[in-house]
Amino acid sequence: MSLEYRLVAFLALAMSLLYMDSRYDYLDRVRYSVAYLTTPVYWLADIPTRMSFWIDDVFVSQRDLLEENTQLRQQLLFAQRELQLLAGLASENSRLRELQEASQAVQGRVMTAEIINVSNDPGSRRVLINRGAQNGVIEGQAMLDAHGLMGQVEEVLPLTSWVLLITDSRHGTPVQVNRNGERTIARGSRGDAPELELEFVPDTADISVGDLLVSSGLGQRFPKDYPVAEVTSIIHDPGQPFAQIRARPLAQMDRTRHVMLVIPDDEAIVGPAMIFDATTDVVEDVPVTNLPEDFSPAAAESQPESQPASQIDAEPAPASNPVAGSAAQDTAGGIQ
Q1: Which end of the chain, C or N, has fewer beta carbons within 10 A?
Q2: Chain segment 10-30, per-residue pLDDT in tens
Q3: pTM
């Protein structure tokens, strides 16, 4: 049989099988048996492809895992940063709420401000706030935080102001014991510790450790009865007329950022901050009051040293500490 006849026969057989397979199910069993017999052939033929995929999974997956690990670490870092920001915002919100609640206890109006810098001078304790003359800040204005009195404005600039903290050795704050109303002057410590020293307190004064010190309101510089400090130590020296009393400020000097400036009333006294001279222990720029009408410098120079010139007709100061007695009288006159 020639090749042409064979080709025609095979084509006719193929067409017949296609027709019978599409119309009838005679060949389903045959197809099933053939597929069962040819499965090992397909599996053997697919071995190179599956080996290639397995090798790719071993090496490429390790690289992908390292990249994914790096990405996850970056995402974790960003998530922790956002968490810290949220925690900072929550803490700031809490401080602002405390500041708002504290402002309700202050009589009169207040102005919010923010501490933007701290003085690097080791001899002074001052902070810079973001309010100045254009915002209505005046010299001598009191500054508070949510926990206690912080200080008062010492220098006013156009957009900012320097505030002298109450822990500065040049600053004096008229305070009183909240328990019994005992009045005194709280001066910033001369040491490195940010604390207060009570000036000219008699050895017999009724002050105990743990007593709360509040602003007395004398001088009309600070709001009355606002917390200032807590007494931490009392030392009685038999050879000294005054007790050595130290107190811890209640204001968070080194942590707070948001503060309040008390806006004084029209009749309130405004002016320079109460600053002590570090060498003479007297108050600077404070007018001396209660002088006799016939007082003159010549008469003052002729008086004995144990009797201050500003108190000619008054009781003489204690001989053991005449300078301290004179400073106490001058301080009392300056804050009346």
Answers
A1: N
A2: 888 888 877 877 777 777 777
A3: 0.55
